[in-house]
Amino acid sequence: MKTEVLTDLEQIESVIKTCSVCYVGLIDSDGSPYVIPMNFGYYKNIIYLHSAPTGNLVDKVKNDNRICITFCSDGELVYQHPDVACSYRMKAESIVCKGKVGFVDDFDKKVEILNIIMKQYVKDKSFNYSKPAVENVLIWEVPIEKATGKSFGVPHAGPQIIRGGK
Question: CB count, 10 Å around CB of 40?
Answer without folding.
Answer: 23
